């Protein structure tokens, strides 16, 4: 059996095995047609999806599932690396070396001669200073340069606001943000009343942007907060369905008044433990 085949079928082959499998899948003559056809753009949505599934496993504290989800995410990195190698751009070693160099450079208090005797807050400030220097060396233009366009909109909003805050463009506390939220709500209501759908969408976006800013000021992860709200809604609505089923009904056989009452019952049950 060729060495490559032996590695591919080695249950303890680790990362070299995974890299060999991806090379085989992308082989233009003997590989998988689907894998061969993929490029960076077609794989990118799967990469984002797998990252969210990792976060979901962590939120559920399902450590067995997390093992598999991290593997799925690692596969995405390996896939992108193989596409790049096929094009002569870079390979997996370049990715690993690049991130290793970055981690060493960004932790001089661990790998260099700087003192470790400083707070986590000071280390965060130092991290941002190093990142700013890296951006300057990469000639990224402007304060907001380098904030990825492909990020989820809510996450990108927070990152943009953090960058602006570094140069002093920020409210000193939550009071100004809350006042801005009140202002944006009024503008959204006015836009809705006007019947201008495009204007209403714009004002709705402004309100979401300010809500993301409030989350940043309150040190809340807005993505995590919204996921938690989604889970709560799902849990309570499923309880509504269960209560209706006990009465021999389905939601479409009910009405808002009844379901709202059942929602309040589900809410009360949760509070009672």
TrEMBL record:
SUPFAM superfamilies on file: all-alpha NTP pyrophosphatases
Sorted UniProt keywords: Hydrolase
Catalytic class of the enzyme: hydrolase
UniProt xrefs under InterPro entries: MazG-like_dom, NTP-PPase_MazG-like_C, NTP-PPase_MazG-like_N, NTP_PyrPHydrolase_MazG
Domain of life according to the entry: Bacteria
EC number: 3.6.1.9
Chain segments annotated as transmembrane: none
Domain NTP pyrophosphohydrolase MazG-like, residue spans: 38-111, 176-237
MF (Gene Ontology): nucleoside triphosphate diphosphatase activity
PANTHER family per record: NUCLEOSIDE TRIPHOSPHATE PYROPHOSPHOHYDROLASE (PTHR30522:SF0)
Entry protein name: Nucleoside triphosphate pyrophosphohydrolase
Annotated source species: Roseovarius aquimarinus
Originating gene: mazG
């Amino acid at each position: 059996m060729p060495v490559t085949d032996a590695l591919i079928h080695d249950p303890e082959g680790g990362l070299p095995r995974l890299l060999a499998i991806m090379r085989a899948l992308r082989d233009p003559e003997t590989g998988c047609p689907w894998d061969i056809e993929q490029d960076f753009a077609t794989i990118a949505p799967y990469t984002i999806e797998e990252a969210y599934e990792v976060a979901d496993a962590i939120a559920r504290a399902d450590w067995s599932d997390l093992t598999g989800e991290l593997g799925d995410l690692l596969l995405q990195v390996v896939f992108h690396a193989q596409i790049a190698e096929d094009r002569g751009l870079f390979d997996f070693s370049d990715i690993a070396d690049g991130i290793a160099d970055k981690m060493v450079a960004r932790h001089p208090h661990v790998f260099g001669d700087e003192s470790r005797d400083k707070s986590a807050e000071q280390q965060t400030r130092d991290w941002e200073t190093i990142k700013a220097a890296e951006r300057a060396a990469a000639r990224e233009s402007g304060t907001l340069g380098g904030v990825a366009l492909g990020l989820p909109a809510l996450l990108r909003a927070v990152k943009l606001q953090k960058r602006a805050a570094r140069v002093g463009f920020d409210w000193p506390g939550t009071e100004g943000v809350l006042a801005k939220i009140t202002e944006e709500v009024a503008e959204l209501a006015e836009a809705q009343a006007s019947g201008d759908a495009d204007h209403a969408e714009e004002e709705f976006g402004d309100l979401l942007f300010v809500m993301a800013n409030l989350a940043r000021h309150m040190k809340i992860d807005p993505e995590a907060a919204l996921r938690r709200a989604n889970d709560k809604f799902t849990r309570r609505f499923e309880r509504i369905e269960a209560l209706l089923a006990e009465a021999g009904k389905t939601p479409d056989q009910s009405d808002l008044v009844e379901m709202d009452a059942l929602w309040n019952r589900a809410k009360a049950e949760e509070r009672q433990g």
